[in-house]
Amino acid sequence: MPRSRADLEKNEERHLAPYAQSSALSRGREHDEDQHKFRTVFQRDRDRIVHSRSFRRLEYKTQVFLNGSGDHYRTRMTHTIEVSCIARAFSRALGLNEDLAEAIALAHDLGHPPFGHLGEDTLHKLMAKQGGFRHNVQSLRVVEELELKYPEFNGLNLTWEVCEGLRKPYIPNRLIEGFIQPSLEAQAVDLADQVAYICHDLDDGLESSLIHEDELENLELWRTMKQKALTPYPHLEQERGRHYVLRTLLDHLVDDVITYSDQTIQDRAPESSDDARRQPTMITFSPETAKLARELLNFLYKRLYHNPALSAVRQRSVDYLTQLFELFISHPHLLSPQFETRVKKDGVHRATCDYLACLTDRQVYVQHQKFIGGIPSLDTSHLEQSALL
């Protein structure tokens, strides 16, 4: 006999902590739908996200290094999958709802534009007079408006709880009063994102040789993890040893979060998921580890994210985004049909921003070459309508 949705919900009732968000107690969706026979609401959300076009595009969007610059560097998709794994580990250990945490994690970067945080900063400046641009707000916009999957409404019609988890920094929903934080599952995703940045971006930085291990010797967290990892194995070859130190670092951060958060939850004793939302953040590093992790993250900002070796490529990316933005603002008929239609509803600037945010790194270069690179002027008689999206 297959397990029904009701069976899965009963299983949650038996195994989840009282402060976890159960599927059966979801606030539901904006547009009512019949329940599924075999999947809970959060399992359906997870599947809708994975099957979306926005999720597939993450494979071709920058994490730190431009897509295609190396076979082993993270993309926005591999980063998302790694965040999901870490968030599930937190949730499993703390008795939270893994399905909800996984859905939030898989959706948390759907609104990221091409070229990573540089692309985000560029669009934010271009949209300064129209409300700016933030990738977390855009992720919510993607799942509520820009995905076109259903005949009767826009978006993916995800549950309130998943959409709540995409609001960061958290702003209490207009329907719910008294909450100061999202669910503990959403908090787990937020911290998993930080852990992934620290460990995996460090890995990519070392892989690229833009940063070197000897630079890390001044960082207490790295020194401690290196000693712990390599003391039993003093003769490991360099590559194997580096990866084992990174593995040890990841394990240490995950263990710290679980141990400290569990104690925080016990001390505050939330009696329900809503009770947890009314209290300050409970899924955190310990104060000692938070300080050391911040030191390592600051190092990454200085030595990797703002490394001069990446500046030329980054400047070209900014120029291309800016030029395409200015072109489409002046000639909105060049937008794909979906976004040209949105001009009347959202204005030409927001529709253009939505369109550019959906592009992958590669598509920006293709669009620029098509519309600007080989054309001596912006005479619209020489331009074709885009069909990339």
Indicate the topology.
Layout: H1 5-15, H2 41-50, H3 53-57, H4 76-94, H5 98-107, H6 116-126, H7 135-146, H8 160-165, H9 184-208, H10 220-230, H11 238-268, H12 273-277, H13 287-305, H14 311-330, H15 337-346, H16 348-358, H17 361-373
Helix pairs in contact: 2-5, 4-5, 4-9, 4-11, 5-9, 6-14, 9-11, 9-13, 10-11, 14-16, 14-17, 15-16
How would you state the average pLDDT, rounded? 90
Number of separate domains: 2
Unreliable stretches: 374-389
Share of helix, binned: 55-70%
What's the architecture of the largest domain, going by CATH? Orthogonal Bundle
Multimerization status: single chain
Beta-strand proportion: under 5%
The topology string of helices and strands comes to HHHHHHHHHHHHHHHHH
What sort of overall outline do the alpha carbons produce when their principal axes are compared?
globular
Report the span from N to C terminus.
43 Å
Radius of gyration: 22 Å
Summarize the structure.
With 389 residues, the chain is mainly α. The chain has 17 helices and no strands.
Label this structure with key terms.
single chain, 389 residues, mainly alpha, Hypothetical protein af1432, disordered C terminus
Polypeptide structure, described:
The structure is a single chain. This protein has 389 residues and is an all-alpha fold. It folds into 2 domains: 5-306, Hypothetical protein af1432, CATH 1.10.3210.10; 311-382, no CATH class. The protein has 17 helices and no strands. The protein starts with a helix and ends in a 16-residue tail after the last helix.
